[in-house]
Design a protein that fits this description.
Blueprint lengths: L14 H9 L5 H5 L5 E4 L14 E16 L4 E9 L2 E8 L4 H4 L6 E10 L2 E10 L12 E4 L8 H11 L12 H6 L5 H9 L4 H30 L12 H9 L6 H14 L6 E6 L5 H14 L3 E5 L3 H17 L6 E4 L5 H13 L4 E4 L13 E7 L6 H9 L5 E6 L5 H7 L4 E5 L10 E5 L4 H13 L3 E5 L14 H11 L6 E4 L5 H12 L5 E4 L12 E6 L7 H8 L10 E5 L5 H12 L3 H12 L24 H17 L9 H18 L2
Parallel strand pairs: 4-6, 8-13, 8-14, 9-11, 9-12, 10-11, 12-13, 15-20, 16-18, 16-19, 17-18, 19-20
Antiparallel strand pairs: 1-7, 2-3, 2-5, 3-4, 5-6
Helix pairs in contact: 6-7, 7-21, 7-22, 9-10, 18-20
Length: 686
């Protein structure tokens, strides 16, 4: 057996278990080895009872004070005791474990590890692990236990058991990085990094393994971009563009003036589209900075010159909103062009009609989801494709479009402000434009950073806004309760809010595990104010404009990166009403308060991204990934900025030495890149 073998060749993996792994994208042993833990359960040193914090897992050692009590009823017996050390006492409870009254009443020191929550009576540790006598905890102290992303029926213990088998089949000769790179960039061997990312003996082993894996992830991505850029430099511009007076007339009729940044970017796009080579440009700008208007001008430029243009949105709801906005502009300003919507959920009859309109050239501007590049769609003369950054184009997509006609110009829109130093690396295949101004009529969002004691005040404020006809978002980091990540979760939080607010206020929940149609339906209902409070995970980062939403409450704000918090905040402040963002955090550390205070003082995404980069450092490597940018499995472009720069230098060195990767030294790297460019850039980005 090897890494290409199916996972059912492993001991204990039958058809049922194979189907469970298939749900999480694992079919081979190699896939399994790349199925990294989402976090680790870290057994820290014991602390004093006076040092424990609400909402966190703590380990405390003390003696039982008074009697052990057993209460509740037959269905739910609750065992409780008071644990005492030199700094104070802590109430501890277990559920359905009445036998503990006998086993724990022998005296001596006791070590407990569990989540601490706040109840009416104060802080309580619920259902902790027991180490008795307390010396037994010493054996676990400092160890890391992997915690994997799961699906229904797949348990963490099962994944660990299967993973321990898979590790035995790692090929130590498979390393695609040259030997001299390992020493130069302080990288582990391929086999060691895979073993230590799953079962690290200690934090040092984990950090070293993660460093290697993040480096190779960044290097692979950067090399593929550089090689793609080199390939695209050969693409000749086969379209002829002339100035269009109708566009200038349209701009002059708008009820607002374009910002200087919008005008500058618009000129860069026009220059690109008229140049000898094809455009590959990224337009970066905060949510609300006016990127969509610039995109619309580019579409007008293509279509008024007799060509078709296409705008590809990440969701059907957003595609429909873009279509309605563009159709309204075409009608209001009497522009002689027609728009067409194309999405996956349209009926067969509707799709057929759309295909005919697109192929015949009856429509000029096509708006939709990735359905726009499917085989059945044939364009008459497509000259421009505009995509959201969630739709980074790979080689195959561009070739698919080229096969339908001439190679089109590509414009990528991004609302993720990142420092230019990182942007040049991450978007190595694209020229970069930045819209760093907000329209003058935008009211700046009012921010506040508060602790959990402010929660009821926040709820009252939200209710007041709803009474004025406004709507609210609540953001939580997780979907379901986890014994390992003690953060507010979407499903439970939704129920809590439904209990708290009157029934006239409708509360709904949205998360990434829902089907796309269900998410679209919820967002559409929220857009119509049929839902007043939407509880969501970060999936809301890419959503429709809801100008009526004026409040965003972000729970466990300390769990997110600053750039991501800023992007989430951009979901409000999109209408004429004053908007507010409440960052709620249970963390008490000085560093966390300093980070969040930056958001309190600034609404400038590029400044915030720079500060995020400055303050992030190694950070909490064992928590959830902070930025989630670019779909990396492990890497975080802010947290791992130094590794990103090292990988960029390594890519330069490799391409300078062997631009086509044909030498024996790089033969394994070339094979790895070929697989990556045929997979990651093509499928994972769609």
């Amino acid at each position: 057996m090897n890494e290409l073998s199916k996972i059912n060749t492993l001991k204990g993996i039958g058809d049922k278990t194979s189907s469970l792994f298939l749900k999480v994208g694992v079919t081979t042993i190699g896939d399994l080895l790349d199925y990294y833990p989402r976090t680790y359960d870290v057994y820290e040193d014991s602390i004093l009872i006076s040092e424990i914090e609400e909402g966190k897992v703590a380990t405390v050692t003390g003696a039982i004070f008074g009697r052990i009590q057993v209460g509740g009823n037959k269905n739910m017996q609750i065992t409780s005791l008071l644990l005492k050390d030199i700094s104070g006492t802590l109430k501890v409870v277990w559920y359905r474990m009445p036998f503990l009254r006998t086993t724990l009443s022998k005296g001596g020191l006791l070590t407990l590890r569990g989540k601490v929550t706040r109840k009416k009576a104060g802080l309580i540790m619920e259902h902790p692990e027991i180490f008795y006598p307390s010396q037994t905890y010493v054996e676990k102290r400092g160890t890391l236990q992997p915690v994997y992303p799961l699906t229904t029926g797949l348990t963490n213990n099962l994944v660990k058991k299967v993973m321990s088998q898979a590790i035995e089949f790692i090929d130590p000769k498979k390393d695609f990085l040259p030997e001299d790179f390992l020493g130069k960039y302080n990288l582990e061997q391929y086999a060691d990094s895979r073993r230590n990312i799953h079962f690290p003996e200690n934090k040092e082993c984990f950090v070293q393994a993660r460093h290697r894996l993040v480096f190779e992830e960044f290097l692979t991505f950067i090399l593929s971009l550089r090689m793609q850029k080199k390939r695209e430099e050969k693409y000749k511009n086969n379209f002829t563009f002339q100035q269009q007076p109708l566009i200038e007339a349209f701009i002059n009729k708008l009820p607002f003036e374009l910002t200087c940044a919008q005008k500058k970017v618009w000129e860069e796009i026009k220059t690109d589209m008229s140049s000898p080579h094809m455009m590959s440009r990224l337009v970066q700008g905060d949510v609300g900075s006016g990127k969509t208007m610039v995109a619309f001008l580019a579409m007008l430029y293509a279509s008024l010159n007799g060509y078709q243009s296409a705008l590809m949105a990440p969701t059907e709801v957003l595609a429909r909103q873009h279509f309605e906005t563009i159709t309204a502009l075409l009608n209001e300003y009497q522009l002689p062009l027609k728009a067409q919507l194309l999405t996956g959920s349209m009926t067969a009859k509707e799709k057929k009609e759309s295909y005919c309109n697109i192929q015949s050239g009856k429509v000029d501007l096509v708006i939709g989801t990735h359905a726009l590049i499917q085989e059945k769609v044939l364009y008459k003369n497509l000259a421009l494709v505009i995509t959201d950054e969630q739709h980074r184009f790979g080689v195959k997509q561009r070739e698919q479009l080229a096969g339908k006609g001439s190679m089109p110009h590509i414009l990528v829109m991004s609302a993720t402000p990142i420092p230019r130093t990182l942007g040049i690396i991450l978007y190595g295949d694209l020229d970069i434009s930045i819209i760093d101004e907000l329209p003058k009529n935008r009211l700046p969002i009012k921010n506040c950073v508060v602790d959990t004691g402010y929660r009821n005040t926040a709820y009252k404020f939200m209710e007041g806004q709803i009474k004025q006809g406004r709507q609210c978002y609540v953001i939580c980091p997780m979907v379901e309760e986890s014994e390992h990540l003690e953060v507010e979760n979407v499903t439970d939080y939704t129920e809590l809010l439904r209990d708290h607010f009157p029934p006239t206020i409708k509360v709904a929940c949205l998360h990434g595990k829902m089907k796309q149609a269900e998410k679209d339906e919820l967002m559409e209902a929220f857009g119509k104010n049929e839902i007043q409070i939407l509880v969501s995970t970060t999936v809301i980062e890419v959503g429709i404009d809801v100008p009526n939403a004026t409040v965003m409450l972000i729970e466990n704000a300390e769990r997110f990166g600053l750039a991501q918090l800023h992007q989430l905040r951009g979901r409000v402040g999109r209408g004429k009403h004053q908007s507010y963002c409440i960052f709620m955090s249970a963390a008490k550390s000085k560093e966390t308060k300093e980070r969040l205070e930056i958001l309190n003082k600034s609404n400038d995404g590029f400044f915030i991204a720079g500060e995020d980069l400055r303050l992030r450092g190694p950070g909490d490597l064992f928590g959830i990934r902070q930025s989630g940018l670019m779909n990396f499995k492990l890497g975080d472009v802010f947290q791992d900025a130094q590794i990103l720069k090292e990988a960029s230098n390594a890519a330069d060195e490799i391409l300078e030495e062997d631009g086509n990767l044909t030498s024996e030294k790089y033969i394994h790297l070339a094979e790895h890149l070929k697989t990556y460019m045929a997979g990651y850039l093509i499928e994972k980005t769609l």
